[in-house]
């Protein structure tokens, strides 16, 4: 049994513009994630990849299909039971600053999952764990007293990661955790995430729009296009021999350092006349 | 530089209000504000009577200061009632859904009604009870708080950090008290300051129209009404000084609102 199993997930959003067709963000997605594994979901904006990340955590409800976590159907849980379940599943967001409450100190932010899931924990023990976790993600202990606005983007993302790991989840959704960061910080954050996965044996669902970001950190890659997964393969295999023409387009989207390789892949012309998830 | 100036304005304003309140509560007034001296009526401002005397011979300065006690406490009571009910009802109405949207339409209709007339009717029908003045102020201001709360909270609910709190497993109650309310206090405080200013004007308008605080108890609106007739015959001081005090009070609270708005905007990022 896989840790996470998504079966034929369908999610349609009503269009904000009256009279427009609804947006079909997920069109029957099935996937599974094993314990300790990283599955990367790659797609361009509008492909439904962030919707998928939220649906897996039941931050939004599916129209059809199911998500099972450790064998439990999340759709069948009461709000109370679902909240208790969240100690085991966490998320790191794309926008580090926006994901932190500007009125809380870093200590207050990071301690919150403990306060929620282990309400009997003593203040002193919470403090000890917060400091240990801050240290684990590479933040100085005095960061606990600071407000998120006083930190740099990279430090803010470390706070977001500390908050996510403090309840020792078995599974995390990483929703483009590095795409708003400077290039030099990106590598550090990716390395940190890889180390934490090693230490805590977490499974990751790594949502990204860039193949090359996830190349070094993912075990398998699922390519999403207009609400469907068009191809899933182990990372090395996908890079070596991409099956689907859309995958080939994605791979050729980045210029190689070697000009002779630049035209190795053809662009995906087949279905690309249909580019909007609404009209498809 | 601009911020500094605004904060100076707020400091001056708050000091003025506090001084006025303290004087009305504790300071010995030069004359009994309700006593009348037949011989000394309609005297221009002088060393003996700083703001002059009114038609009945009462000292305008003593009356203006004494009026602060009742006018300001009514304004504060009305504001506190609006604040508490407005925030609670506004929070309750801050969900996405048909019900809460209908409620907003209802508020639209209610606010389209001339609220001063409503207040006038309420206070008069109750037999001129002072607590009805407080109720009237609340009726005027509760919808404003509700709208403000609703729009702020609705946008906060969409924010990433509230989504993060839900992903952590925070209960709705925890989200409300730890993530939503602390992030709306700034605008609520600004609104509160503006509400006090508005309440002072409403109370003055009501007493000007002869409801609410009634003579011989001094009130700014009542004094303006009493002195209005004397304006044309040249006794400007009877209506002008209470008018000036109302103006200064409103200015003071507006300055305070500016300063609060400024501070919260800055600490936000």
List keywords for this structure.
heterodimer; A: 280 residues; alpha/beta; Rossmann fold; six-stranded mixed β-sheet; four-stranded antiparallel β-sheet; 10 strands; B: 269 residues; mainly alpha; MetI-like fold; 10 helices; elongated
Regions of chain B with pLDDT < 50 over 5+ consecutive residues?
A: none
Distance between the termini of chain B: 19 Å
Question: In percent, how helical is the residue content of chain A?
Answer: 25-40%
Number of domain modules of chain A? 1
> Main β-sheet of chain B, in a few words?
none
The H/E string of chain A reads EEEHEEHEHHHEHEHEEHH
- Number of helical runs of chain B? 10
The geometry of chain B reads as: elongated
Give the oligomeric state: heterodimer
CATH homologous superfamily title of chain A:
P-loop containing nucleotide triphosphate hydrolases
Count of individual beta strands of chain A = 10
How much strand content do the residues of chain B show? Answer: under 5%
Number of alpha- plus pi-helical segments of chain A? 9
Second rung of CATH, namely the architecture of chain A? 3-Layer(aba) Sandwich
Order of helices and strands of chain B: HHHHHHHHHH
Find the CATH topology of chain B. Answer: MetI-like fold
Uncertain segments of chain A are none
Structural description of this entry:
The complex is a heterodimer of chains A (280) and B (269). By secondary structure, chain A is of the alpha/beta class. Chain A has a single domain, classed as Rossmann fold (3-Layer(aba) Sandwich). Chain A has 9 helices and 10 strands. In chain A, the strands form 2 sheets. Chain A has a 6-stranded mixed sheet with strand order 6-7-8-3-9-10. In chain A, strands 2-1-4-5 form a 4-stranded antiparallel sheet, covered by helices on one side. Chain B is mainly alpha-helical and 269 residues long. Chain B has one domain: MetI-like fold. Chain B contains 10 helices and no strands. At the A-B interface, helix 2, strand 6 and helix 3 of A face helix 6 and helix 7 of B.
